[in-house]
């Protein structure tokens, strides 16, 4: 449970960091980032698997590169749902989802190492 809450707070911080480095997205405060991280997590859990299955033929033909588009669609959907998260367009959603995913991978790796040692 501690890992889940820590991951949620760190992903919210990662979303703010992404907004700082990439001007194509805007996050209106840490509270909005917390809600956006929660919604992104829910959409990645519920919507993304459906999109992956529906776009499987295109994903196979593009050797998996279409999964970047699926991630961008999920990110853009979260921005559409939330008033505190603004994305300039689909290209901005693509870049932001890539940056956010990299931050998420780093956070997961660090949390695994810290919580396994402690």
Task: Summarize the topology.
Layout: H1 2-21, E1 25-27, H2 30-54, H3 56-61, H4 66-81, E2 85-87, H5 90-117
Antiparallel strand pairs: 1-2
Helix pairs in contact: 1-2, 1-5, 2-4, 4-5
Throw out a few tags for this protein.
two-stranded antiparallel sheet; about 120 residues; about 80% helix; 2 strands; single chain; 5 helices; mainly alpha
What does this structure look like?
It contains 5 helices and 2 strands; from the N terminus they run H-E-H-H-H-E-H. The model has no long low-confidence stretch (mean pLDDT 95). The longest helix has 28 residues, at 90-117. By secondary structure, the chain is mostly helical. It is globular, with a radius of gyration of 15 Å.
